[in-house]
Specification:
single chain; mainly beta; 7-stranded mixed sheet; two-stranded antiparallel sheet; 2 helices
Length: 124
């Protein structure tokens, strides 16, 4: 059975610490991209998952999300706030999306870009 704990789910994935101390985890494998945040019991407000895709669904989600859509240069093209479970969203101007806990998108965005990267980590 898949883990419902974010620590286990993100254990081997690369991560970046952004300005403000928030953590961006990269869904760098096919498995990580397919699983996303589905079936997690919770996600800390200071964490987000970055996925290369132009569409997402929230089937299997147990909490609402803010979705930050990024173009190929990393600029924010749209933010979908408070997207509840059992929904679909797409942004064809985007090349990737950052998924975070509803109400917390602003912690990851500075102007029209993600907050400045301050440190690159590997693993937990």
């Amino acid at each position: 059975m898949p883990s419902t704990d974010h620590v286990d789910r993100f254990a081997d994935l690369p991560r970046r610490t952004l300005a403000g101390g928030v953590t961006l985890v990269e869904a760098s494998t096919g498995k990580a991209r397919r699983r996303g945040l589905s079936r997690l019991d919770e996600l800390p407000a200071d964490h987000a998952l970055h996925i290369r895709t132009v569409s997402v669904h929230t089937f299997g989600m147990r909490f609402a999300l803010d979705l930050i859509w990024l173009d190929k240069h990393g600029s924010v093209v749209r933010v979908d706030r408070d997207v509840g479970p059992k929904r679909m969203r797409a942004c064809f101007k985007a090349r990737s999306v950052v998924e975070t806990l509803a109400g917390h998108a602003d912690a990851f965005v500075s102007g029209d870009r993600l907050s400045d990267e301050v440190e690159r980590d590997r693993g937990a």
